[in-house]
Amino acid sequence: MANIKSAIKRINVTKTKNNQNRPVKTQISNEIKKFKAALAANELKHAESQLNVVFSVLDAAAIDNVIHKNKADRQKSKLAAALNAAQNASKKKSA
83 near 51, Cβ under 8 Å? Predict the structure, then answer.
């Protein structure tokens, strides 16, 4: 345990911020899991609508500095690429 007054305050602030950020991070991971489940089930329409939800959650977290803006952009790019790959694969199967 810290002895210095400012260090004790920083510990308390860190705990508070952690408690505020944890639900947001959990929501991000849950929405990504829903998107990946829709992709795995080959429900492309549902996956596309879920991707919009994921984008909005990631953007909100980045604005609130829960996650870094670049991390949000990186995740959005990765998920969009996965959706595009799935859509292209389904087009090739139907053609």
Answer: yes
